[in-house]
Amino acid sequence: LINGVVLLAGSIVVIVHVIPRLFEPQIVDATGMLWLAMLGIAFNGFAFWRNRSSQSLNAKMVNWHLLEDVLGWTVVLGGSIVMHFGDYPWLDPLMALGVTLFILWNVIKSLGRVIKIFLQSNPEGVDLSAIERELRTLQNVEDIHDVHAWSLDGNYHVLSLHVVISQIPDPETLVLLKTQIREQTKKMGIDHATIEIELPSEACVLENC
User: Fold this and answer.
1) Which of 33, 43, 168, 190 has its CA 20 to 30 A from that of 25?
2) How many domains are there within the chain?
3) Start-to-end CA span in the chain (Å)
């Protein structure tokens, strides 16, 4: 969340400073820009490549920051080449604005996913109705209720549920049932399931079960 807010604030600051330069372009040192751009692309590109396989939202926000730097330096490189051979001072702020708007759009989308995690919303791709249907087909399962799913980091999904069994089982049967439930939920995108077993005659102590 902090990474997203920093990127959001940084993008807004860039836009505020770039827009006036569209109307009052400034002459820049094209040769110096060229060398700085190549160094920026090399360092940030390597960092982005090293971190590309990370799937957590925090890592993705860092990747967006690195990608912003890579795209920014790429724009600087292209702009410095063009401005080296022609008089186009307005090109620098125009391309900077385009890259910043692109990054800003993706940061806003990522922040939306972060907010959903904080609100413990149902994770994308997890169908609670389908999970209930599948678990009701297991032997000794009479009913499934109070099913809730949320995500810890956008990738690791957690599930809690109440399972009403048709009869009092022996310990081995109960362990087998829990194992089957965890295996089924694992196939449906759940990484960790907390299971509460209830007997048919047992009333649920929670409201709105």
Assistant:
1) 43
2) 2
3) 33
Tell me: do 60 and 138 sit in the same domain. no
> What is the overall mean pLDDT for the chain?
83
Average pLDDT over residues 102-118: 82
What is the pLDDT averaged over residues 153-173?
89
Closest CA to 199 of 148, 139, 142: 142
- Owning domain of residue 188: 128-198
Could you tell me the two tokens for 3? 């990474």
111: left (phi over 0), alpha (psi -120 to 50) or beta: alpha
Evaluate whether 163 touches 194 at the Cβ level (below 8 Å): no
pTM of the model: 0.62
Return the SS3 of 26: coil
- Using DSSP's 3-state secondary structure scheme, residue 34 falls into helix
**What is the distance between the alpha carbons of residues 109 and 13, in angstroms, rounded to a whole number?**
19
| Res 107: pLDDT | 80
